[in-house]
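Re-run with default settings, no changes from the original entry. Doing this only to confirm the output is reproducible before filing.
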Amino acid sequence: MLGFMPLTAPAQEPFSPKESQVQNNFPPKESPAKESTAQKPFSLKECLDYAVEHNDKLQKDKLSMESAVQSKREIVGALLPQINAFSGLNYNIQKTTIAMPNFVNSMMPPAMQDPDAPKYMTVTMGMDYGANWGGSISQQIVNFSLFNALSIADLSGEMTEIGAKINTEDVIAQTAGLYYSIQVLTYAVELFDESIALMDRTLQMLEVNKASGLMRPVDVKQLKVNKINLETEKLSMIQAIDIQKNLLKIQMGFPMDEKIELPPINIKNMEEEILTNALTAFDMSSQLSFKMFKSRQKMLDLQYKAAVYGTLPMLSLSANYAMNYMGDDFKGETFHKFPVSAISLNLRVPIFTGLSKTAGIKKAQIERQKSLRDERSLSQSLAMAYGNALMSLEQSRKIMDSQKRNKEMAQEVFDVIENNYKEGISSLSDLLNANSALIRSQMNYVNALSGCMKAYIDLKKSNGTISEIKK
């Protein structure tokens, strides 16, 4: 069984099925492409577009961006005038009673004062009914913390958007990787079909020779064993294709109960794509991970400002107006009404906060200094990742070219030995060895092709051009 791993990187526009058909004199017998003849194959662009639209993680990112917009609106709302209205109606079941010095007795003429009068007297306050209505308005005039919070909300929205783009690139890379992995595995199955067809043809010759007494039965059985082993490996590969398709469906957000078909791989177009579009110049500023890092640095600056602004005064303006009503009834002599209004300018000055604000400022300064040190490390890491991906692609391309030539030579050798065997020049052992060498060369080429495509996707991702494969 081939050691295929799900590719996690993209490639180019899907290859045309007409152009991508691999020449094969022996039609596939159990190719997974025959699962559904009615469904139109999904091109790479169609798969990527579908994934970007339906992937669950990207759908959550859209909600996160909408949440960031609402967070900013919430802070903007706090900067706008705050207007409130109120009203109320009271029925005083038990009125308030207060005790006070008995000034009534002391104000009377001495002759009329009661020497036994209590020192204090009680007075019932209020009336049976009370009502009011009114409104208030307040406006922040100087509040640096709130103004800074608005900048933080803006930056948070930008970071959420960058994060969504990073996730989109990951989805594109993973979807494209699975797409190409399926195509390579399908191509490998086609090669298996070719090899099995060659064995069938050889078996027919051996059966004829065995019937004539020119071939030992054990030699025929040995070839049959090799064929069964090859067919078993092919079935395992078909199962791997089904597993990869299920992974692709999950990545795309595609219904699991529906079939998905892909066009055959176009190796020529793929090689041209690798040679012409992979070697894009590396630009640090275009890397989304670097942009996210710079945004985090800005956030640290804003957090430092927030710590500083927490020590500054705040000034606000407010005004209110109310109309009050009271009486034992809402008519007659006991009914009274009067307005109440005020305008106030409020200043709050932090004086001592237990040194917590100072500690917060110093902590924010330390985080900013740490971030400056991390920037150089990140730049080197991204540049190294690009350099490694570039070297990996170049090496993979050389291996693929070498294995391609090796496969072609193995095919030529097999054709010659097969013809010589028919003429009695080559032995059966030579024929079987040539067949085995051809199968190995074919599988080595498939593995090299898979590695090259993965390296291509890794390079596109490392230089920030992974999204170009959707075009």
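The chain has two domains: 17-76+146-307+355-470, 93-126. The longest strand covers residues 129-142.
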